[in-house]
TrEMBL record:
Entry annotated with the keyword Calcium: no
Residue ranges of domain Luciferase-like in the record: 15-262
SUPFAM superfamilies: Bacterial luciferase-like
Transmembrane segments: none
Matching PANTHER family: ALKANESULFONATE MONOOXYGENASE, ALKANESULFONATE MONOOXYGENASE-RELATED
Protein keywords: Flavoprotein, FMN, Monooxygenase, Oxidoreductase
Name listed for the protein in its UniProt record: F420-dependent oxidoreductase
Organism: Streptomyces demainii
Cited InterPro entries: Lucif-like_OxRdtase_Rv2161c, Luciferase-like_dom, Luciferase-like_sf, SsuD_RutA_monooxygenase
A Pfam family hit: Bac_luciferase
Length: 303
């Protein structure tokens, strides 16, 4: 299994931006296969929708570094690891701006970018970017169309309901051909259908330890993957060629053994071949995070 880690972007880790390049370089030296960013903008004081089924926003979301800047720093500091976004909230960005940023990072990294897109869940974040949240699905569809045009055509032209790219010369294309692989985070039925029709792969999540009364995260993942592959097949595509990269979110109290066991089980029981671990709840600084990177890799690869 390929094993990656989130870059130091949120919470206490975000207060050490000068450590991003060192973290990325050292994680690569330790044997990490990929490095990842997410996309948080604000942490509302009185959220109308909390995080992950709760009524609150974690305090770790009160500090967030820009995902494109963090990923660019990691790209410049590394040579081998893949660089992923899980996820960029695509409806927040004009597609031309998003395409320029992603293309730059893919070129900086020599074609190591994995593009993970989603729509987010916070109404207040949509207010902050002045985008109607009710339009998020349609805007994601438009974004996918516009990104494909930007990456594969020259001149580029796109005209949609929400965004327009006038016919334009765009000579810089990604190093990945025809473009970086695009993954979608999807759980609702309509989102799963879009993903099965349009994406190169899925971005599932496993939370450990599981909440009391919640299903085993690996068993739930295995069941979800079955549904996703069936949806891909209904779209006339080959489910065996449809990828999945698992995000593991260890909560407070999760141990290195918990993480390693989940990684190993996800590979053996669900067939996951690539996963990454977000250490935001377990590390106070990048040094602690790197220690966890080393211990997780050693424990998982010894199993």
């Amino acid at each position: 299994m390929r094993i990656g880690f989130a870059l130091p972007q949120f919470g206490p880790l975000a207060h050490h931006p000068e450590e991003i390049a060192r973290f990325a370089r050292r994680a690569e030296e330790l044997g990490a296969d990929s490095l990842w960013v997410g996309d948080r903008l604000i942490a509302p004081v009185d959220p109308s929708v909390g995080y992950a089924g709760t009524d609150v926003i974690p305090p770790e979301f009160r500090a967030a570094l820009d995902p494109f800047t963090v990923l660019a720093a990691a790209a410049a500091a590394t040579e081998r690891v893949q660089l992923g976004t899980d996820v960029i909230n695509a409806p927040w960005y004009p597609p031309a701006v998003l395409a320029r940023s992603l293309t730059t990072i893919d070129l900086l990294s020599g074609g190591r970018l994995l593009v993970g897109l989603g729509t987010g869940w916070s109404p207040e974040e949509y207010q902050a970017v002045d985008v109607p949240m009710a339009e998020r699905g349609r805007r994601l569809d438009e974004c996918l169309d516009a990104l494909n045009a930007w990456w594969t055509e020259n001149p580029v032209e796109y005209r949609g309901e929400h965004w327009t790219v006038p016919a334009s010369h765009v000579d810089l294309k990604p190093a990945s051909r025809p473009h970086p692989p695009v993954y979608l985070a999807a759980f609702a039925p309509a989102a799963v259908r879009r993903m099965a029709r349009r994406a190169d792969g899925w971005l599932p999540v496993a939370v450990i330890p599981a909440k009391s009364g919640s299903p085993d995260p690996v068993a739930a993942l295995t069941e979800q993957l079955g549904g996703v592959r069936a949806a891909v097949e209904r779209e006339g595509r080959d489910p065996a060629a449809f990828d999945a990269i698992l995000r593991i979110n260890p909560g407070v109290g999760a141990s290195v053994d918990d993480i390693a066991t989940t990684l190993v089980r996800a590979g053996r029981e669900a067939g996951i071949q690539h996963a990454f671990v977000d250490l935001v709840y377990l590390a106070e600084n990048p040094g602690q995070a790197l220690d966890l990177v080393q211990r997780v890799l050693e424990r998982a690869r010894a199993s």
